[in-house]
Design brief:
By secondary structure, the chain is an alpha/beta fold. It contains 11 helices and 13 strands. The strands form 4 sheets. A 5-stranded mixed sheet has the order 1-7-6-4-5, sandwiched between helices. Strands 8-13-12-11 form a 4-stranded mixed sheet, sandwiched between helices. Strands 2-3 form a two-stranded antiparallel sheet. β12 and β13 form a beta hairpin. α3 crosses α4 and α8 packs parallel to α9. The chain binds coenzyme A.
Length: 350
Amino acid sequence: MIRTQLLGIGSYVPDRVVKNDEIRHLNDRHVAQEAVLTETDDAWIQQRTGIKERRYVAEGTYTSDLALEASRRALADAGVAAEEIDCIIFATLSPDIHFPGSGVYLQRKLGIADKTQCPCFDIRQQCSGFVYGLQMADAFIKTGTYRRILLVGAEVHSHSLDYSTRGRDVMVLFGDGAGAVVLGPKESDDPRDGVVYTRAAADGTGAEYLYLKVFDISKAPYLQYDPKDREHNQMMYPHMDGKRVYVRAVREMNLATQKALADTGLTWADIDWFVPHQANLRINEQVAQLAQIPPEKCLNTIQFYGNTTAATVPLTIDHWRQAGKVKKGDLVLSTVFGSGFTWGAAIFRV
Ligand code: COA
């Protein structure tokens, strides 16, 4: 039977490292000022989230630019030419512009727009985007619809954060980055080959606990922005009820992890690595404890990159692969949770 195989993986983060001490001094254009503009500190951020630093793009860099770099690396890793891609799935909450989606920009930047005219799907499941996209790609490949799918998660968060004490609970968490995989079909009867399992879930009653309303259609025209009056610019920034998100994330990630094992009959003896979404190191540690995951199998990168939303899973796998930990053919269980609420889990061979 046809199974879906990961042919290659790649990631990209911008060069600029923003440490916790620096973030207190940044203005809306990410330029450090002498004054402290946000009351926060390294000890608070590290203790509550595990984050030490994150990456920020240079001005004028789009999400599709980060996606392009990650895609090139994934294609090279797969030994697949860009022209062979017959479908792009682009997961992001920070598209280049409101529409069209970023997938078509990525297609154009890859130089394959007129050559392939491949379909470009943009999906909007925030931190769950990679697992949602993997489920789509798996279905497309198993049904023979497409043969070379480029699945990308990429985000530029730094341009839409509230650089002030008011926004500190969200602002310190997020970073910019991208991860990509190339997927294709493989004839195999081994149920533990390739993409073994995917499950996606959502609960829309949680939509108001983490959102960015910049395109709220009840406002005409979309937003009334006054750069001199921060109080009137709430719609420009993400808002979060951190405690509710935290509690629900621990619950759903634990349950989704346990369900993935129950549904497949696999145990931690079969799985090489647990790669959770990277929102908060404490969330991941609690999930690992509840789901009884061996600590040496848990991979995190939030310390270095913060939360890069749809990018965290491929970015974390690629980071630890480059460090020599993750090897080709290893079996990964990944669990994600994000705004929506949305969540999911997947088991696949890298
Ligand atoms: N620096 C310093 N102090 C901060 C701060 C910051 N960056 N952000 C918030 N605080 C302050 C709060 O104002 C509050 O002060 P007060 O007690 O004087 O009112 C205090 O710290 C405690 O805030 P609280 O919100 O209770 O902290 P917390 O322990 O819940 O941690 C989060 C906050 C955001 C780290 C945590 O709720 C979290 O990680 N939630 C989940 C986030 C997440 O996963 N988001 C993405 C989902 S995909």
